[in-house]
Amino acid sequence: MKFPTKATVLKTTTSAGVVALVLAAGAPAAQAEDIIKIGHVAATSGPIAHLGKDNENGARMAVDELNAKGVAIGGKKYKIVLQAEDDAADPKQATAAAQKLVDAKVQGVIGHETSGTSIPASRIYYDAGIPQISPSASNPQYTRQRYNTTFRNVANDEQLGAALARYAMQQVKAKRIAVIDDRTAYGKGLADEFIKNVKRGGAASGSSIVSTQFTNDKATDFSAILTAVKATKPDMIFFGGMDAVAGPMLRQMKQLAIPIKFMGGDGMCSDSVPRLAGNAMSDGQVICAEAGGVEPSQEKGMADFRVAYKKRYGIEVQTYAPYTYDALMTMVAAMRKAGSPDPAKYLPELAKIQYKGVTGNIAFDARGDVKDGVLTIYTFKNATREKLAVVK
Predict the structure, then answer these.
(1) What's the Cα-to-Cα distance from 336 to each of 85, 345, 361, rounded to whole Å?
(2) pLDDT tens for residues 303-356?
């Protein structure tokens, strides 16, 4: 956004002694910088605020790095400003935040954090013609609404659920699996994909789903559903939900003497899980997958990012910060290719972008899903997350 210069007002005196005002329209005046305003939305309050803040931190690192190096687009220099909003992982608050960003005339949006907020907000951005990249929403529905403004740079639940099911059956050799989800768009969507893939591959592996239970994303007492699960004698629990629920659930599993494997997706794959679980989590018990990952040739870039993040914020990356960083960098790369930050002009470039990020190579398919999405399988040992494998 470029602000016009003000004309300079000069005083002069005519032969009759009358003071006249002369507008020197071409006189030099101070100019404000050209601004690119990018919105960011995540849950920076509520039970998963630590994950939402992680997202926001990643976006701020990208903005600061770009501004420090200088952003030149179409021969002009720009300053990027991040307008960060909190949706508290609530769909209604998400749509209000989305409308606020549209009214503020942002040129792009990074977010939202969860599927349950990204899906309703995406219609608002589509109607306004504003490109949106979510670094963490994995429900397939997000990119299946035929909105050409909607993208994500992480694998979706179809990929995540399939990969986790294969790992559970082929590597863990789980035979009797109980499934619990938190009824959110993310948690239920992931659990449904996992169940579908276990049923598909169960005949060959001998694996089956022995119990399905559900809770909610704010629950703290799981004794009833865990007791029901225990009665089915499972050797693994799959949980579709976030770490704020997974941690307390692990504590109650220990109290009820259910020392079995506990598997889930990226929502419960943060470094906060050991803290939230207290001393209830044994080494190797938890297996989770992050919707992203880097091949060996790119591991140094991710490691360097983690070091820089900790140096700046004094904490470890939770889960999504590198993907948020890459999402914003990818959006600006599209603006540079288009020679303009105008959404209508850079949107076509975003759709066909090829960007090498710290989380991998980023390109989008016709729906806006990341192409060739990879996943990283982790466990926890000595309260530290440890990589097991990178899979597709």
Answers:
(1) 25, 11, 18
(2) 899 999 999 999 999 989 999 999 999 999 999 999 999 999 999 999 999 999
| Domains of the chain listed by start with CATH number | 34-155+296-371 (3.40.50.2300), 158-290 (3.40.50.2300)
β-bridge pairing 132-134 and 108-111? parallel
**CA-to-CA distance for 258 and 121, rounded, in angstroms?**
40
Q: Which residues contact 26 (CB under 8 A, 6 or more apart)?
A: none
Separation between Cα atoms, residue 85 and residue 132, nearest integer Å = 14
> What does pTM read for this prediction?
0.81
pLDDT digits (tens, 9 = 90+) for 174-186: 999 999 999 999 9
- Report the candidate in 107, 53, 105, 114 with the shortest Cα–Cα distance to residue 84: 53
Residues 6+ apart with CB under 8 A from 213: 178, 179, 180, 225, 228, 229
Strands 286-290 vs 150-152: parallel, antiparallel or unpaired: unpaired
Please tell me the distance from the alpha carbon of residue 81 to that of residue 66, in angstroms, as a whole number.
11
